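Hi support team,

I submitted a single chain yesterday and got back a structure, but I'm not sure I'm reading the token output correctly. Could someone confirm the output below corresponds to the sequence I sent? I've pasted both exactly as they appear in my results page.

Thanks,
R.
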Amino acid sequence: MNSALRDERIARFAASDIYPVISPEFCSGRSVTDVLAGIAAGGAKVVQIRAKNASTLDLLTLVKQCRTITDQHKMLLIVDDRLDVALAAGADGVHLGQDDLPVADAVRLAPDLLIGCSTHNPEEIAKAQADGCGYLNIGPVYPTQTKSVACGAVGLDHMLDWRKAVHCPHSVMGGIKEHHLPELIRNGVRHIAMVTEITQAPDVAEKVRQLRKYFEK
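Hi R., thanks for writing in. Yes, this is the structure output for that exact sequence:
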């Protein structure tokens, strides 16, 4: 199913670098919108809102507030897990886990949205692509406390090997700190998702600017 809007969103994701993920519990007491404002000021081109414990109404309200900020800064807005909220709030995409709505069904229901998918092994990578994901994420690369994954950390070597079979834009995630960026970028990684390294930084805007500079070297 072809969609010019979906293709545009995929192209914008492909042109991004740092991929901040905001979870309310990892904002050091600040609001999600305050953290997002810092991320936008730092120049990030994409952001994901992950609020797994929020009610549907609270999440929808939050994402609509975030949409105002991302519109002002021409950022892609991705919602974790919830296709219904992404559509209702006018977000650009949804990021799905292995236990969420299947990618193929999400593509059918929302052909204009950028559909992302978390993958943890070659089989999941192959299926996500076959089902038409707009981008996929490989991880967790390193041990992480922000998300529980049964497989544990996949490790740098496995991630680099598996990404050879990826033919769509893809990010990596999981326990990634600033000091990991030079090695990841040196090995060809172009989209790096990060949570606490960004959302718990004292100066979020400056941290994002600092992280983005690694991609310019």
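A quick pointer for reading it: The mean pLDDT is 96. Let us know if anything else looks off.

Best,
Support desk
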